[in-house]
Specification:
- The chain is of the alpha/beta class.
- It has two domains: about 190 residues, FAD/NAD(P)-binding domain (3-Layer(bba) Sandwich); about 80 residues, FAD/NAD(P)-binding domain.
- It is built from five helices and 14 strands.
- Strands 1, 2, 3, 4, 5, 6 and 14 form a seven-stranded mixed beta sheet that branches.
- Helix 1 packs across helix 5.
- The longest helix is centred in the N-terminal third of the chain and has 14 residues.
- The chain starts with 10 loop residues before the first strand and ends in a 10-residue tail after the last helix.
């Protein structure tokens, strides 16, 4: 077979939700309440794994009373700020509580539309659906400034997505690129001008100084990666053309969990439920999905 895994016969669902984080689980909750047929596909081994893999000291910046998904409040005192492992455990228990059909270790690598239905691929596995909800979150690939390649190889470089604990850093100064000023002031940390490039292997500041440091931690955000979506639904900035998560030009396609989908809280644990409910209601109210010939 030329080393290729045998292509499996497709499974049919009315809706395939891609992503088993807070966005995908919230969509699943509302679809379950409406009695719809769906599956949630996630690349992780366990629900909540992306949270478990973040830096050790991470806590939500919203207290528990504002950090629950629909139907189940966060199990902690109202003004407690949950740690990352608490969030992971909560998401895992949420999926179990509402018996959400999450399939782990399924990394989706393709989405297309043919013969009146969507085809979702994950290696040799295939899923056909009348609707697809892209709930892969707002953080895909780290955004690294171009000048990073010009820094001296003796400087330890980390993106925030790869930072876990201080032990990862080398002895010496640490430059953290583009952090909010109020956070630095609160921690008593010196704030330097914007980093604009490199000179002599050192980070170059906007005021012309080359900063001698042993470490650089890039807190420079992320960029989308929807390269696996083979559909003409994106603008030139790789943003999906949607309204409240609904892609009018591609009926049956939805997005949940993106930054400012409808508000600043759209990607957050405590805010994603509103958008998820809207999308689930649109799915439930749409024309019945086409039934697969093999069903």
């Amino acid at each position: 077979m030329d080393g290729q895994a045998m292509e499996m016969a497709p499974e049919w669902f009315e809706t395939v939700v891609v992503g088993g984080g807070q966005a995908g689980l919230a969509v699943g909750y509302h679809l379950r309440r409406r009695g719809r047929s769906f599956v949630i596909l996630d690349a992780g081994e366990r629900v909540g794994d992306p949270w478990r893999d973040r830096w050790d000291s991470l806590r939500l910046y919203t207290p528990a009373r504002y950090s629950g998904l629909p139907g189940l409040g966060f199990p902690a005192a109202g003004w407690h700020y949950p740690a990352k492992d608490e969030v992971a455990g909560y998401l895992e228990s949420y999926a179990a509580r509402f018996q959400l059909p999450v399939r782990g270790r399924v990394r989706v690598d393709g989405l297309s539309f043919r013969d009146g239905r969507y085809l979702v691929t994950a290696g040799a596995r295939r899923f056909e659906a009348g609707n697809v909800v892209v709930a892969t979150g707002a953080f895909h690939h780290p955004r690294i400034p171009g000048f990073a390649a010009e820094l001296d190889p003796g400087i330890r470089q980390l993106h925030s997505s790869g930072y876990r604990r201080p032990a990862q850093l080398r002895e010496g100064g640490v430059l953290v690129a583009r952090v909010r000023r109020r956070d630095l002031d609160a921690a008593g940390i010196e704030r330097v001008p914007r980093t604009t490039g490199a000179r002599g292997g050192l980070p170059l500041l906007e005021d012309g100084r080359a900063l001698e440091v042993a470490n650089v931690v890039f807190c420079t955000g992320f960029r989308h990666d929807f390269s696996w979506v083979d559909l003409p639904v994106f603008d030139t900035g790789d943003e999906p053309r949607q309204d409240r998560g609904v892609v009018a030009s591609q009926p049956g396609l939805y997005f949940v969990g993106l930054h400012f989908l409808t508000s600043i809280v759209s990607p957050l644990v405590g805010g994603v439920g509103h958008d998820a409910e809207h999308v689930a209601a649109r799915i439930a109210g749409a024309k019945p999905a086409k039934v697969a010939a093999s069903a």
